[in-house]
Amino acid sequence: MKTQGLALRLSIFVGEGDIWHHKPLYTEIVHRAHKAGLAGASVIRGIEGYGATSRIHTTHLFRLSEDLPLLILIVDEERRIREFLPQLDELDISGLVALDAVDTIRYTAPEHRPAHWWSAR
Predict the structure, then answer these.
(1) CA-to-CA distance for 63 and 52, rounded, in angstroms?
(2) 3-state secondary structure of 50
(3) Measuring CA to CA, which of 6, 9, 15, 80 is 20 to 30 A from 56?
(4) Rounded CA gap, 73 and 39, in Å?
């Protein structure tokens, strides 16, 4: 099944080494998004980048600590994303948060397939 609609994308740019209460910041954000009932969250690890400090973070053979850039993506209804934003304020994030409207297409598998659905073709 295919459904289409408008949504809001929340993009949170943080560093791999960012910590919140002795655990990775990205983990805290994903767990809060899950608890808030948001549609889903993904953490994407960058291989190189820089932010406000202009210090380039990169994978490098001779570096022990890479602190690579991370991107946390969350897409849901605008109302639900905006209700979630105050939770980010509590985390004292040092990074960029971006919001943008997106057109979405969601594909879902049929709910009830016969035991041998492939043989029914």
Answers:
(1) 21
(2) coil
(3) 9
(4) 11
